Amino acid sequence: MLRHIRLLALSILIFAFVALGHPQQRSIARPDGKPLTASTIDSTVTQLMQAAHITGAGIAILSHGEVAYLNAYGLRDTEKKFPLTPDSVMTAASLSKAAFATVVMHLVQTGILNLDKPIVEYLPKPLPEYPRYADLAGDDRYKKLTLRMLLSHSSGFPNWRAFEDDHKLKFHFDPGTRYAYSGEGIDLAQLVVETVTGESLTTLMQQQLFQPLHMDRTSMIWQPAFDSDYANGYDEYGRSLGPERRATPDAAGSMQTTLRDYSKLLSSVMHHLADKEKYTAEMLSPQIAINSAHEFPSLATDTTDANKKIALSYGIGWGLYTSPHGKAFFKEGHDEGWRNLALCFENGSGVLILTNSSNGEGIFKPLIDALLGPTAFPFEWENYTPYHQLPPLPKLKEHKNVSLTPEQLQRVAGRYKFPPDVILTVTVDNGRLFIQENDEAKQQLLADSPQDFYSTNSTDEYTFKPATGTAQVLILHLGDKDLELQRIP
Fold first, then answer.
1. Are 484 and 347 members of one domain?
2. Which residues pair with 402 in a beta bridge?
3. pTM (predicted TM-score)
4. What angle do CA 264, 268, 272 make, to 5 degrees?
């Protein structure tokens, strides 16, 4: 919620740090079999990064199911001029969902889970008796939900209830009847999986996936070992958002990983698919057809026939379509300061793009077109507008930076809650005001007035009410949306 911002162009100096040498290279080929050279990849990536103002990017190319090329470009820290490396820890964002789905399929394979068993049969009490799901009381459609529905984004839930008008979780259609991307659905699947296994998601993912694949610098939460090499995220204006030091695992987006590690996951999935492994094949089989005009807003009712020819659909945790090179599977990751994309084909070819820049999606289409050739990927459905077609960034608002007394700062300090579980903690430290969302990094706030504040590294703005006495309400201004949070003990 504190990562809704825009980014500034970076100095061309960052592109002097073109990865720390190439790995031992296998033969690199495009999906159509045409050869691809390291020099072509390097020149294409660096040119696009400069043009689109990308802070850092990691690129992995897969051929015949193996990682044939692995390289990182640009910076992981612009202030310290630290180069991004293939082992720099980066936020996976929604790439987490696909990794989680892969683990769920392992549990299905061993008989611990069943994709079609109503999830209520896995829980020790009715779903509305869990505080996070109390909003569903009175709507028995929750009894129809299965893991297949939750992981194929056909639950009927919004992406996030925070952006509903009443901020409550509700069904927008009968479960299983249409596609609508939903982080809420993935989080509910996490509750089920943790309940059944008796393990935290952090432990489960480590045991079932990261350790077997030697994904040694990957975790669902921040690890001390990551401090040796990690990337900051950067907004559209080039302002650092820092790393995401999550302390709580979230199947929808908390995973921290590296270019090297996530490419191992892709290679493993491709090998299992090539070997016709039953549960991988099921994971990558269409579960629900997609006829929405765009992926977001997730509940928009606009439809199109444009993607019928590529049979756009969703599997278990992965997007699917038919490409000129056979069946393809993909997953995108989108968080403030992080833009990622994994795209793989059944012939063993693929690409992984990780960026620590909110400008990252602007190079996805030109980069994939240049390196892989025609792929029929649904760029328009994804709203991946090439950087040169985007409108100019709006001018940043000018603020006053008013000096306040210690008493004026202390009156707004405290904890503010946005249902169901977002907590903004406002603190005073050495005469400076800071705000922190759950377990994300703190951000400093400066004052426009005794009740109006703004972030030093984002366009977020805050108003505390009432104007005098201890503040009871925090209003977070996000573009054209205002979110109201109430003070809590």
1. no
2. 447
3. 0.92
4. 175
Nearest to 104 by CA among 93, 94, 92, 112: 112
Cis peptide before 420 (omega within 30 of 0): yes
Compute the distance between CA of residue 430 and CA of residue 174 in angstroms, rounded to an integer. Answer: 53
> Who's near 395: CB < 8 A, 6+ residues apart?
none
Distance CA 321, CA 147 (A): 22
pLDDT in tens, 263-285: 999 999 999 999 999 999 999 99
Q: Are 370 and 34 a contacting pair, CB within 8 Å?
A: no
Beta-carbon contacts of 226 under 8 Å, excluding residues fewer than 6 positions away, are 89, 217, 219, 243, 256
Amino acid making up residue 179: Y
Q: How many CA atoms lie within 13 A of 41 on its CB side?
A: 27
Residue 478 and residue 332 share a domain: no
Is the residue at 192 inside a domain?
no
CATH code of residue 204:
3.40.710.10
Cβ-contact 451, 465 below 8 angstroms: yes
* Nearest Cα residue to 388 out of 52, 44, 46: 52
Does any domain span residue 33?
Answer: yes
Yes or no: say if 29 and 349 are a contact pair by the CB < 8 Å rule. Answer: yes
Whole-number Å distance between alpha carbons of 177 and 358: 33
**Domain tally, the chain:** 2
Same domain, 292 and 426: no
310 and 410 inside one domain: no
Same domain (yes/no): 413, 462: yes
| CB neighbour list of residue 42: distance below 8 Å, 6 or more residues apart | 18, 71, 73
Asked if residue 5 is part of any domain, the answer here is: no
pLDDT of 24 reads 44
CB proximity list for 16: less than 8 A, separation 6 or greater: none
Alpha-carbon distance 324 to 160, whole Å? Answer: 34
d(CA 471, CA 426): 11
In a domain, 3, yes or no: no
Q: CA separation (Å) from 130 to 34, 125, 135, 137, 188? A: 54, 8, 10, 10, 11
**Domain residue limits at 432:** 406-488
Q: Quote the CA–CA distance of 444 and 454 in Å, as a whole number.
A: 8
What lies within 8 Å, CB to CB, of 155 at 6+ separation is 145, 149, 171, 175, 180, 182, 184, 185, 188
Residue ranges of the chain whose pLDDT lies below 50: 1-24
- Same domain assignment for residues 233 and 342: yes
Residue finishing a domain among 360, 389, 418: 389
**CATH number of the structural domain spanning residue 412:** 2.40.128
Which amino acid is it at 434? F
Phi, psi of 298 (to 5 degrees): -65, -30
